[in-house]
Amino acid sequence: MTFEEALAVQSLWVRIWVTWLVIGAFILPLGLLIWRNTRIAGLVTVAASVVAGMGVQWIYDQLGYVRLMGLPHIIIWVPVVLYLYRLQGNRELSPWAVRLIWVIMATLLVSLAFDIVDVGRYALGEREPF
Predict the structure, then answer these.
(1) Residue spans per domain, the chain
(2) pLDDT tens per residue, range 28-76
């Protein structure tokens, strides 16, 4: 079964969340390319999300649909969120850029909350596939 097929049999709320996660982590950061002083943040966020996605896919390929799949998000997105948080405090940013950064950060933080719980549960012995 492919990752996409495994995801398709998950509950509706999981599929909706993953759809939003793709929007918030891959598409919305492209909006940061509009402003000169947020372009690097947009590129960094998209690149980090691509690498995290590749890590998730690699874990799925090795172990299946297990709780450890959140580990790449934790490793990669925590520094990105810290970077975005620092950036949004820049007084020279457009208010719309700051709003967009907050939506991206909120998306990543919600994902990280799920991921930290899942990876913790995996570390405590819940290793069976979903």
Answers:
(1) 3-123
(2) 999 999 999 999 999 999 999 999 999 999 999 999 999 999 999 999 9
Is residue 130 predicted with pLDDT exceeding 90?
Answer: no
Buried b (16+ CB within 10 A) or exposed e, 24-40: bbeebbebbeebeebee
Tokens of 82: 């810290």
CA dihedral 88, 94, 100, 104 (to 10 degrees): -20
**Which helix (H) or strand (E) element contains residue 18?**
helix 12-22
Q: Give CA torsion, residues 96, 51, 6, 23, to 10 deg.
A: 10
Q: How far apart are CA 77 and CA 66, in angstroms?
A: 19
